[in-house]
Design goal:
The chain is built from ten helices and nine strands. By secondary structure, the chain is an alpha+beta fold. The protein has a single domain, classed as Spore Coat Polysaccharide Biosynthesis Protein SpsA, Chain A (Alpha-Beta Complex), CATH 3.90.550.10. A four-stranded mixed sheet has the order 1-6-3-7. Strands 2-8-9 form a three-stranded antiparallel sheet, with no helix packed on it. Helix 3 packs across helix 6. The longest helix has 13 residues. The radius of gyration is 17 Å and the shape is globular. Belongs to the glycosyltransferase 15 family.
């Protein structure tokens, strides 16, 4: 599943007519009314990746992933966006990976980014290293690293107004106006956003 979602689903013939997708998994909960078209929003605002939950990956599943990412960007610096989100991924300018990623069981994204030369080359490089088989490279860190490095940070989007739960974590809108407008059925105190394991504060610091 991780390998398929990392490098193949957007190549499926049935998806070729489409640009945007919203990943929806079984047994998830949505707590708020959706009052606008998120695909139209992504297009109008030039966003390539949207998320609701961000936290740390389990390091034993990706012991060599970052070393391979560093090797790839050394070979292909032309793919690294000038205004990227490296500071979300690394606390030391890219020397090490802090394990932050966007939880991909909810993602709204632009498949033209996954089909781009940068991501195509990136996935092919990772595929050649065997980590999808011999470790457990997940589509969440692979997507997150690619979006953070090969797109402008302004093209990423935190869907703060979307209440969402995938066991055991959830996001509930923190803004009272958003919570009321969306008629959200979640407890605003029950959200992962600012707990110790959350990477949302790191993401938000990109724009401060």
């Amino acid at each position: 599943m991780c390998r398929f979602n990392s490098g193949f689903f957007f190549q499926h013939p049935l998806l070729q007519p489409y640009r945007y997708y919203w990943r929806v998994e079984p047994d998830v909960e949505y707590f708020c009314d959706m009052l606008y078209d998120p695909f139209h929003f992504m297009q109008q605002e030039d966003k390539i990746y949207g998320f609701t939950i961000s936290f740390y990956e389990w390091e034993p599943t990706i012991p060599t992933l970052w070393a391979n990412v560093k090797e790839f960007i050394a070979l292909h610096p032309e793919y690294v966006a000038e205004d990227n989100a490296m500071a979300y991924l690394s606390d030391d300018g890219g020397e090490t990976y802090n394990l932050c990623h966007f939880w991909s069981n909810f993602e709204i994204a632009d498949m033209s980014f996954w089909r781009s030369p940068a991501y195509t080359a990136f996935f092919a490089f990772l595929e050649s290293k065997g980590g999808f088989y011999y470790e457990r490279w997940g589509d969440a860190p692979v997507h997150s690293i690619a979006a953070a490095l090969f797109a402008s940070k302004k093209q990423l989007h935190f869907f703060e107004d979307v209440g969402y739960r995938h066991q055991p974590f959830q996001h509930c809108p923190q803004d009272a106006g958003q919570w009321e407008k969306g008629k959200c059925g979640c407890d605003r105190m029950d959200t992962l956003d600012y707990r110790q394991q959350s990477c949302v504060p790191r993401y938000q610091r990109l724009f401060q």
